[in-house]
Structure formats: structure tokens, C-alpha cells
Amino acid sequence: MNTEVVEDRSSSVVAFRDARWKTRWIVVGLIIVLLWRSYTFIDRSLLAQVPFWLLAIITGHAPQTFLLLFPVLTRDPNDRSTFGAPAPRRFLIEFGLAIPIVIGMTVVLTVIGYLVARLALGTSLNPDALEMANSRSPLYVYFFLLLSFTFAPVAEEVFYRGFLYNAFRVRMPVLVAALVQSLIFGLGHFFSATHSSMAIVIGLILTAIYEWRKTLIAPILVHAGLNFLSALGTLLTIAILANVPVMGVIGNPDDHECVIRQVAPNSAAEEAGLQAGDIVTSFNTQPIRNFPHLIQTIALYRPGDAIPVTINRSGNMLNVTVVLRRRGTP
After folding, report:
1. What is the pLDDT of residues 142-161, one digit of tens each?
2. Which pLDDT score is estimated for 71?
């Protein structure tokens, strides 16, 4: 995979930028990506029953491998593009440029995230961090965090910028191609509407970087840097939540209400009589918007606190008392 301009200037050969793909391959690629991302709509309680190794292959390794190989294998064999490794000097230049870009984007995203959290309680630009922090499969979490800043940025940049954007820009105006490709990129990262909207903006920035530097190495490095800092933030969230109280419930951050999808055995929630399907409407008289909001609210208390919780069970409003426990306490 060549991600930079080939040294022979007379040939004007640029990896991916000169490659061509037939329309049918664009359609096939988009359909497969759509099928892959549809797993996010599967009930989390069902996914929890799948063995770690199989879930990691189905939702992580296999799709990312597809994103990397599909553009390479389906390109027109008669085009002039080539594939190879970038020169060390070019790599160092792009790496040096990526560092301030990543820092700047991280600062801006952090400020936006803070404002969003303040203006809309229970809303987060990175809801998967909370979900991972409350996961009962730490090996699965660590696998995906590692994948997020190593293999995933390469695969996603090859597919979205190298394949989709380049395929679109020969069929439509460049600005339209950038927007359509970024919309697809954002929808491919749908954890919530807010998160997807931010991913669209990031997709546009990565596309602009690609157009500026004319090499996939540039957006790959920026993408990897952003994901690396995000992974560190998730690990920090996991560490912070290690000693906070828990109820022992699992929910879907995409739900518009705080629906309990699963109740952990021998948990505080089970002891209080909570059931899957219950909708938490208030926690210690504070209205609850959704599942991430519930997690944020629980973190304000201490293990051992007895909290009145109001739930909606099939239209009937019930009041129960939940005695919070420390994470990991049987």
C-alpha cells in the first residue's frame, strides 16, 4: 500500500488518488459496511452471551480487515496507481505535522464535549467510554482499545478517504464528494446522534488533511493520534469508575429513555427487584434522561447509600430502594 507520491515524477502516479473503482464495487462496499454497523442495534444483553473471541472477530478484526483489503482487491487492474511503503523522510514529516493537529483537535473536542455535557445532561461525545467502563468483559474492552489506534485508523483511512472519497470525487464535485463520504464515515461511527455528528466533522477534517498532504499517511497518523488519546481517556474513565458505586444494570446508550436491558445476578438491582425492561425515570428524585445519565448520577454517591428509585414497568410507576454496592463486590 503506497501512501505517498511515487518518486518518479514523470509518471505522476499517486497511490489511491489515481486508482479507479467500478460503481458496483462502491455499492457492494457500502452494503457490507451497513450490514457490519447494524450490530450496534442488537440488544446488548444478546451480545453479552457471545464468547469474547467470536465477538472480537465479528465486530472488530474481520470488518477492519475488510475495510483495508476491499479497496485494494477491487480497484481497476488497468489503472496507474501503485502500492508500497512511504519513504522514511516523508513519514517523519507527516508525523511531525500530525502532532500539533492532534493536540489542537483534542483541545477543541474536549471543550465541545464539556459544553455538550453541561447543556444536555446525559449526553456525551464519547458514550462508548461509559459503556466500556461498565463492561463485564475487560479483555474485550482492551482488545478494542488497542485496535482503535493501531489497525483501525489504517483500515478506515484506506476505505473512507482512499477508496470512497477518491471514488466519489471522480463522479461528483470535490466538496460534494468530501461531504457525502464524511456523512457515511459519521454514520459508520453511530453511538449516538451527537457522537455521529462529531464524527462527520472529524471526517471532513481528515479529508481536508488528505487533500492538503496528498498522502494517506497524514490522515492515518492524525486518526491514530485522536484514537490513542481517546483510548487513554477511556482507560482513565475505567480507572476512575473502578471504586464508584454500581447498581448492576446494563443499558443501551442509544435508547432515548433509561431502559434496563439486563440485570446482573446477585447485584443491588436484583436485590431491589429491578427487571429487564424497566425504565428508570428518577434516581433519588432526580429525573433520569437515559442510561449514560444514570451512570453519571450514580457516580455522585457512595457504596452503601440507599437510594429511592422510580421505575416505569409496563406503564405502572413503582418506587424501590437500591442499596448501592462497590464495583466488583459480590
Report:
1. 888 888 999 999 999 999 99
2. 93
Count of CB atoms situated within 10 Å of the CB of 139? 11
* Domain count within the chain: 2
Asked if the structure places residue 4 within a domain, the reply is no
Q: For helices 217-241 and 193-213, what crossing angle results, to 10°? A: 150
Specify whether 196 is located in the same domain as 294: no
Domain that holds residue 293: 245-326
Whether the predicted pLDDT of 8 surpasses 70: no
Whether 237 and 266 map to the same domain: the answer is no
Are residues 209 and 275 located together in one domain of the fold?
A: no
Number of Cβ within a 10 Å radius of residue 62? 11
Residues 103 and 163 occupy one common structural domain: yes
Residues 6+ apart with CB under 8 A from 174: 211
Is it the case that residue 260 has pLDDT exceeding 70?
A: yes
| Whether residue 105 sits in one domain with residue 146 | yes
328: left (phi over 0), alpha (psi -120 to 50) or beta: left
Domain contains 313: yes
Domain with residue 312: its CATH number is 2.30.42.10
Residue 118 belongs to a domain: yes
Mean per-residue pLDDT of the chain:
83
Mean pLDDT on 297-326: 91
Here the cell at position 10 is 514523470
